[in-house]
Amino acid sequence: MNVYYLPTRQQNDTPALPLTASRWSVFQARAHRAWWRMRLTVAELYVVLRRAGRNPLEDHAWFVADDLPAPRRRTAGPARVLDLDAARRRRGPAVAAV
């Protein structure tokens, strides 16, 4: 098993980096987030005011079409007789005609 030792990092070669963000970058980030929140709020208000109190779901086809045809019902009559032996013969291996 090979073991490799890396040299230790020397502290005086690297400059000290500030750990906190500058006030300007914090201000820019907050202003950017506030701008997008305001844009989304204005867009939502525009949509609400444009529809003028109408139900937003009434424009969809599945709510408008009241004259949909009724589903087909099976004709009343005797139950079907299932021939399981014939079904097994059909599902069995086909005999090669020689």
Tell me the major beta sheet.
Answer: none
Give me the oligomer status.
single chain
Shape from CA axes? flat
The end-to-end span amounts to 69 Å
Low-confidence stretches: none
Mean pLDDT: 77
H-E string:
HHH
SS content category: mainly alpha
- What value does the Rg take, in angstroms? 38 Å
Number of helices: 3
How many β strands by DSSP? 0
Strand content: under 5%
Descriptive overview:
This protein is mainly alpha-helical. The protein has a domain of 37 residues.
Compose a concise summary of this entry.
This protein is mostly helical.
Task: List its traits.
98 residues; mainly alpha; 3 helices; 42% helix
Q: What is the topological layout?
A:
Elements: H1 23-51, H2 61-64, H3 84-91
